[in-house]
Write a sequence for this structure.
């Protein structure tokens, strides 16, 4: 299937919360520089899948490899693994007590042990990538939602991850602010970043995704290039889902 | 009116009593400087213990906090100062005060910090952990700074109470401000030293009270 080894390799992943089985055997390989777009109805397990990939949730069984590392192996240094996996949340989750630069540099300083000068120069670079270098000293409550999300993206990028996972990065934003975040994501993709994006932004998927995955009830129901999945899906379930999305 | 002034605001008496009051004042300062940092540190430790997963630890902390909040601090102090020496544990007067206050105030400060920590949304932990911070680093750099900021008014008002509570140190013969004032009163048969002590408390604590109401106003403005 691929000429290069996958960055993310998920096999037979199962996850339950108590009696509720949320992931029922997920297989997913993401190649370097690929942008995989994940859609599916609410509760189908999209967030849980992403959160298993950096072990914010512990899977019940299956395997997850990031590059060459089995991240579920006993004794794996999960904090070291997480540095290589960027995560961007729907609600930004910026640290309100730190300014934009402080948000971006915290892990550089405390996890990677860089000096303040080193960390700040990398932090400014990351903020520049998201177009917010001039907001370095602003606190989260002084930034718009779109700016906050871009700072959150910079926070993930500063650690030079091999893959970035986005969980509905624009769902909490006012419509007029969505574009700025999507354009940062588009540039990121063009720079060759490997990305998994859970989102309802179908237009973005049309133009930027290499592959779209449709999740339903803890399984991957269908996947393929966006044209195929959006225009001629095999499953009527998907057409129905796309209609409800477009109705909004 | 003259009688009121001569028995409550008598400058001659004040002059006589002043050295005692000053000595008492320094003792109160010394007690405060030991007791407040200890209580805050102990409280933070108590609060952090409640965040641990272990059920047993949680239960032990609940028992600790409940016990020392309900148990009168004066009795606690007397027990530590006069009871423990029978078990060959003699901490000395200052040590007894330090330990009694640590036990009592850490349970109050602990509850305040716990509320602060609980006010921090899960997303903050997840953001921190997803960038590779360990659980301890997440607490130290993300959760505790925000939690503390959120409960500063409660920390200040508890500290006001703790400072006033240092007057119980007099039962173990540490002549703090109020004790010195009462001594001076009984020697001079005049209430002026007591009033003076009250005014000293007022002057020292008033800035804290101002600070407190500044915070309270700001919190109202934020909502
Ligand atoms: N921590 C948890 N404890 C219990 N149940 C959970 C937990 N997290 C998620 N679930 C349940 O797992 C199921 C899948 O949740 P998940 O958040 O992965 O769905 P999703 O596809 O991301 O949905 P949405 O589009 O609404 O974000 C839901 O039924 C949800 O209620
Ligand atoms: Mg979700």
């Amino acid at each position: 299937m691929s000429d290069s080894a996958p960055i993310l390799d998920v096999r037979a992943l199962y996850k339950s919360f108590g009696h509720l089985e949320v992931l029922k055997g997920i297989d997913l390989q993401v190649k370097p520089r690929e942008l995989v777009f994940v859609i599916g109805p609410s509760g189908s397990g999209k967030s849980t899948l992403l959160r298993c990939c950096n072990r914010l949730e512990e899977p019940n069984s299956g395997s997850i490899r990031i590059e060459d590392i089995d991240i579920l192996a006993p004794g794996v240094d999960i904090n070291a693994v997480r540095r290589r996996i960027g995560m961007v949340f729907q609600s930004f989750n910026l640290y309100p007590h730190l300014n934009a630069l402080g948000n971006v540099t915290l892990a550089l300083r405390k996890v990677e042990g860089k000096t303040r000068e080193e960390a700040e120069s990398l932090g400014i670079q990351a903020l520049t990538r998201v177009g917010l270098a001039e907001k370095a000293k602003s606190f989260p409550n002084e930034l718009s939602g779109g700016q906050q999300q871009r700072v959150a993206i910079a926070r993930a990028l500063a650690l030079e991850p091999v893959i970035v996972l986005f969980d509905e990065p624009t769902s909490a934003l006012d419509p007029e602010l969505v574009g700025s975040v999507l354009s940062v994501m588009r540039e990121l993709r063009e720079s060759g970043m490997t990305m998994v994006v859970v989102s309802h932004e179908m237009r973005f998927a049309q133009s930027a995704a290499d592959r779209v995955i449709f999740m339903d009830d803890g399984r991957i129901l269908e996947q393929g290039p966006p044209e195929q999945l959006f225009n001629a899906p095999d499953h009527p379930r998907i057409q129905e889902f796309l209609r409800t999305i477009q109705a909004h | 009116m003259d009688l009121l002034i001569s028995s409550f605001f008598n400058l001659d008496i004040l002059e006589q009593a002043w050295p005692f009051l000053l000595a008492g004042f320094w003792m109160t300062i010394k007690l405060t400087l030991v007791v407040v940092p200890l209580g805050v540190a102990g409280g933070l430790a108590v609060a952090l213990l409640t965040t641990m997963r272990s059920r047993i630890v949680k239960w032990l902390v609940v028992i600790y906090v409940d016990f020392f909040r309900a148990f009168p601090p004066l009795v606690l102090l007397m027990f530590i100062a006069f009871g423990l020496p029978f078990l060959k544990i003699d901490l000395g007067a200052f040590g007894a005060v330090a330990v009694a206050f640590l036990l009592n105030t850490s349970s109050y400060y602990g509850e305040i910090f716990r509320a602060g920590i609980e006010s921090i949304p899960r997303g903050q932990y997840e953001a921190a952990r997803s960038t590779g911070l360990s659980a301890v680093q997440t607490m130290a750099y993300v959760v505790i700074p925000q939690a503390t900021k959120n409960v500063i008014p409660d920390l200040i008002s508890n500290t006001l109470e703790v400072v006033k509570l240092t007057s119980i140190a007099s039962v173990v013969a540490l002549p703090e401000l109020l004790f010195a004032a009462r001594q001076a009163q009984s020697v001079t048969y005049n209430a002026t030293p007591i009033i003076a002590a009250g005014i000293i408390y007022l002057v020292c604590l008033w800035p804290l009270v101002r600070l407190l109401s500044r915070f309270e106003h700001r919190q109202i403005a934020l909502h």
